[in-house]
Design goal:
Elements: H1 14-31, E1 37-40, H2 44-55, E2 61-66, H3 69-80, E3 84-89, H4 98-107, E4 113-117, E5 119-120, E6 125-126, H5 129-136, E7 143-147, H6 159-162, E8 166-170, E9 182-186, H7 188-196, H8 206-213, H9 226-242, H10 244-264, E10 278-282, H11 289-299, E11 315-319, H12 326-342, H13 351-360
Parallel strand pairs: 2-3, 2-4, 4-7, 7-8
Antiparallel strand pairs: 1-9, 5-6, 8-9, 10-11
Pyridoxal-5'-phosphate (PLP) binds at residues 43-45, 70, 117, 119, 121, 147, 149-150, 170.
């Protein structure tokens, strides 16, 4: 990402606007929308809050899927803004059932929206977004709001074709950048709802952003995260050079390899609907997962994530999005095997790597 290290460009210049405009057009292709994909100077949670405040009024009701840390966040944000919440509680590691969403919509016909994660990173689980969209599509006043922070640029999720009303992402996941840039796109239905929404908003007033970011204006309401946008320009070119279909296929293959690897080591997957962005597996009984992840990172030099809340100390999460490729998975498997050995767990060295390799062979042509 050396492009971000170039001397800083002033953000109110035709030079920056040209980069902004090109970046936005490419971003819209990744969102697969003809609407504006807006860039906000914030982490992903800022765009989550923007979705709530721009679609809702205090006293409105929303339905949200709480199947993990990030699902839970929808409820917290909405409650802070005086929006009533209907929670669909989902056991961690499970995808929400489409019937549960249908029932909630029937019980709350005036709900302003269904808020859900495409990929619930805390439990490494994917929710059935396309099927949920089939329910919300015909409801003129109910938006489907999708946190796609670890899904956009990982799985094929065509916003317009599926009828998604709000899609959110962030720079630090599939877009391979430092944190600090959020992206959000709204459907025509969602834009119409913003006109009625009365939650107070200033920094994250999306209508103001749209006015500034629209084609021809090519600027932002407030000072943009300019270096991240310049970096995003480069990253998007890399993504298109690979090809979006190839990129989705690579992510799917890495996910399959990671799942095969941990299963071969006798580790159980956390998720019944495993994500394409990351794989979570329970560490064997008797091993402190927190100490395990710390050992992997600080002693072996390979970074994994642990668990949160009641999964704290129980699981290890292996990322496989963005820059990740075949040999990142074999390294991850090898490190897990060796660390298991160091923690005194009987392990058939090489079993996880071999199982992953069997899958990863598909990535390479015949010699
Ligand atoms: C699915 C999901 N939603 C929301 C967030 C929060 O985003 P941020 O930390 O960028 O505010 C994350 C971060 O990991 C995430 O994975």
């Amino acid at each position: 990402m050396l492009r971000m290290a170039h001397p800083m460009m002033h953000h109110r210049t035709p030079q920056f606007s040209a980069i902004f405009s090109e970046t936005k057009a490419m971003l819209e292709k990744v969102f697969q929308t003809r609407n504006d994909a807006l860039m906000l100077a914030s982490s992903g949670s800022g765009a989550m809050e923007a979705a709530v405040t721009n679609l809702c009024s205090p006293g409105d009701t929303i339905i949200y899927v709480n199947g993990g840390k990030f699902g839970e966040r929808w409820g917290k944000i909405a409650a802070k803004h005086g929006v009533n919440v209907v929670e669909i509680k989902v056991e961690w590691g499970h995808a929400v059932s489409v019937d549960a969403v249908r029932e909630a919509l029937e019980a709350h016909p005036h709900a302003r929206g269904v808020f859900v994660q495409a990929s619930e990173t805390s439990t490494t689980t994917e929710h059935p977004i396309r099927e949920i969209a089939a329910l919300t599509r015909s409801l003129p006043k109910c938006a489907l709001v999708v946190d796609a922070i670890t899904a956009l640029g990982v799985i094929d999720m065509p916003m317009d074709a599926w009828g998604l009303d709000v899609v959110i992402s962030g720079s630090q996941k599939a877009f391979m950048l430092p944190p600090g840039l959020a992206m959000i796109a709204l459907s025509e239905k969602a834009w119409a709802l913003t006109e009625e929404a009365k939650c107070p908003r200033f920094y994250f007033d999306l209508a103001v952003e749209r006015k500034n970011q629209q084609r021809g204006k090519d600027t932002t309401a407030w000072t943009p995260a300019a270096s991240l946008i310049i970096g995003l320009n480069e990253v998007l070119k890399m993504m298109f050079e690979e090809g979006l279909d190839e990129l989705y296929a690579r992510h799917a293959l890495l996910a399959r390899a990671a799942r095969a690897g941990v299963k071969a080591l006798g580790m159980e997957l956390v998720s019944k609907a495993p994500a394409t962005s990351a794989t979570g597996a329970y560490v064997p009984e008797g091993i402190d997962g927190g100490a395990f992840v710390k050992y992997l990172r600080d002693v072996m030099g390979v970074t994994f994530a642990g668990g949160q809340d009641h999964l704290k100390g129980k699981i290890v999460r292996i990322a496989h999005l963005g820059y990740y490729d075949a040999f990142d998975i074999t390294t991850a498997m090898s490190a897990i095997e060796m660390a298991l050995g160091k923690f005194g767990h009987p392990v058939n060295m090489g079993a996880g790597v071999a199982a992953a390799q069997d899958v990863l062979l598909e990535r390479f042509p015949k010699a």
